[in-house]
Structure formats: structure tokens, C-alpha cells
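For reference, the entry.
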Amino acid sequence: MPVVAIDGKTLRHRFYTFNDRKATHVLGAFAIDDTLILGHLEVNQKSNEISAAQAMIEALALAGRLLTLDAMHC
């Protein structure tokens, strides 16, 4: 079964003066077996990583794959 790792990262420092934002949160999907980045998705400031991960899973048609996410998604 193909494995896809999904994880979020907060990018700081360079965003302090960019568009008056302190940071941005990005979610990434990585195909472990193929060592391939499947996509990145910026998490909306008024949302959270959980809803963004669900949208990414649907958009990338990842049904039928083993997904690994951090404890926040349990």
C-alpha cells in the first residue's frame, strides 16, 4: 500500500514584513515510496491544519493510501 506523509510547518522570520503577517502555515504531502512531493497547501489563517489536511487528501485523491499525520489528527 502506498504511504503518504502529511505534515504542517509554520514559516516565520521572513514573513514579519511581508503583507503584514507574522507567519504562515503550510501543509505538505510527500509520497514516501516514490520520494515525491505531491503538493503544498497554505493553511488559511482563520482555519486549522485538520481541515486543510482533509481538503488536501480529497484534492490529491489519496483514498486507498496509508496516510501518516501527527498526533493532532487523531
The chain has a mean pLDDT of 85.
